[in-house]
Amino acid sequence: MQLIFSFDTEDYVDPASNDALLALAQLHTKHEVPATFGLVGEKARFIHACGRSDVVEALKDHEVGYHSDHHFILPNWRYDPRHMPAWVNEKDWDSAMDRLLAEESRGVADIGEIFGERPVTQLRNYGDWTPQVMAAHARLGLGVHAYGPVFHMTDPTPIWYCNQLQIANPRLMYENYLHDFDLTPQEKLKRHIADVQKHLDEGTPRLGWVNHPTRFIADHWWEEPNWWGHCDDPPRKDWTWPERFDAKTTEELLWIADELIGWVARHPDIEFRTFRDLYEEHRPKRVWVEEREVMALAELVGDRPAMVELNGETYSPAELFGLFTHWFGAPEVAEDRTCGSIHPLRRILGPTEEPAWHVGGRASEWLVMDAAKDVEMFIRDHGRVPARIKIGSEEIGPGAFLVALASILRGDEGLEVRIPPTDNLPEEYAPGHYDAIETQGFPMGYIQYQGRREELDFSAIRQHAKWQYWTFKVATKDGGF
Fold first, then answer.
1. Which of 11, 126, 194, 292 is the one with CA 20 to 30 A from 52?
2. How far apart are alpha carbons 147 and 169 in whole angstroms?
3. Poorest-confidence range of 40-54, 163-177, 233-247, 364-378?
4. How far apart, in whole angstroms, are the C-alpha atoms of residue 450 and residue 458?
């Protein structure tokens, strides 16, 4: 069984949290068990400001990941709504991306500066269950989204969604028993070991152990004195931290971690991984697709957008859309057919507004191919599938356009092309994905919104999550070229 230890490392209020972080990193190094420490950008700056070079050096023995710039907590008074969760919830796609890229780029850059290597993993927190956040993080070079989207939270199959490698699996955590003080440290350890052994006995392929270093020093969350309904955006100089455990209690909790890490380190059936390891195995390597492969991919397209597999490699509906559009719409190909011997594999996003739907009909092949020229320029300008494609005087959706282009490539059509009344939402890879998007909670209504989650309407975010299913595909370990 594979085991991934990860730490949501976010407390930028209490200096004592740096000591707990140091101790945990050193324990993992001592037992030669790698871990992923996902730092909030402000936490990295906090460690730096506190002069904790010992913490920085200890973390370098492990994967240093990312956990948003401010844990999506701090308000930005230049915006209305001032908090990022509400902004993403209420604004259009491009407005959300503009703000996310402006604010999140700071944390990614600062972690790279302080630790000497830019992170590739985002450990999911409250705000980044949304496709806008995933897409922004992907653009910033965060290739992995740990713990998965709402429709893929425990399935260990690596997938691509919003251009991030989504790594999910069943998860355990110290916090299951850490603060149950009716149990002795020895009893807590025994339960932790039993939980891991149960997964080994059941044949779980990969298990996550998700943790928060700050929980080793306090019984309350680090944000709680300053947010969570107690007060409203206090000035930073007035921030306080929760009451700490006494030194003996923290020592006992760290003893549990030491013993557990030692136990799993000695277990012959446990293999340790980090999210960076998995990214290196699955990261995109293919840059182009040969002409013959494009033709073969067209043969696999049915009557609705869907992921397809060719020679052990998978292609998302958005990737297929980009390939077929380039074939017919790239001006370079029209000028010099040798440019069409290979086509760029572009990891574009899905549509970001309501796609057009058409009852179906027929159009001249010339009109469809002419429309591809405009669509190609749209892809180059926006990096996504357009929601509406104009063919003559009619508008059709991307689903119908994809199916029509595949049909022309297959040679199914004559001078007129059938425009089918195609669904614009791709076919689900597994039944229930769209239902999960509709019914699972999007915990963006946290902290400031704890007492009024019912006031937040997540319907727009849910719709964006469905549209970005155009980017879905199962991850493979392809060679590419």
1. 126
2. 7
3. 233-247
4. 15
pLDDT of 441: 62
Which residues, listed in sequence order, are joined to residue 164 by a DSSP beta bridge? 161
242 in Cβ contact with 221 (< 8 Å)? yes
State which amino acid sits at residue 197. Q
Alpha-carbon span 70 to 126, nearest angstrom: 11
Contact of 52 with 18, CB cutoff 8 Å: yes
> Is residue 227 a contact partner of residue 448, using CB atoms and an 8 Å limit?
yes
Task: Supply the DSSP string of 60-98, one letter for each residue.
Answer: TTSEEEE--SSTTTS--TTSSS-SHHHHHHHS-HHHHHH
- Tokens 């260990």 label which residue? 156
- N- to C-terminal Cα distance for the chain? 32
Helix (H, G, I), strand (E, B) or coil at 293: helix
Rounded to 10°, the helix 185-202/247-266 angle is 30
Give the sign of the dihedral formed by CA 41, CA 42, CA 45, CA 51. Answer: negative
What is the reported pLDDT for 339?
A: 66
pLDDT at 478: 65
Percent of the chain with pLDDT over 90: 79
Q: How far apart are CA 395 and CA 389, in angstroms?
A: 5
Q: Position 329: which residue type? A: G
Closest CA to 120 of 165, 150, 169: 165
- 228 pLDDT exceeds 60? no
CB 10 within 8 A of CB 66: no
- pTM reported for the whole predicted model: 0.95
Residue 481: the pLDDT is 47
- Asked if 379 and 346 touch (Cβ cutoff 8 Å), the reply is yes
Domains of the chain: 2-282 (3.20.20.370), 288-427 (no CATH)
Phi and psi at 30, nearest 5°, equal -55, -40
Q: Which two tokens stand for residue 18?
A: 């740096």
| Vertex 84: Cα angle to 169 and 212 (nearest 5) | 40
Q: For residue 14, what are its two tokens?
A: 């209490």
Q: Kindly state the tokens that stand for 187.
A: 């009893």
Q: What DSSP state is assigned to residue 349?
A: B
Between CA 224 and CA 231 the distance in angstroms is 9
Kindly report the backbone phi and psi dihedral angles of residue 377, in degrees, each rounded to the nearest multiple of 5, phi listed first: -70, -35
Say which amino acid occupies 61: D
Mean pLDDT of the chain: 92
CB contact burial 443-456 (16+ within 10 A = b; e otherwise): bbbbbbbeeeeeee
**What is the sign, positive or negative, of the torsion defined by CA atoms of 463, 468, 470, 473?**
negative
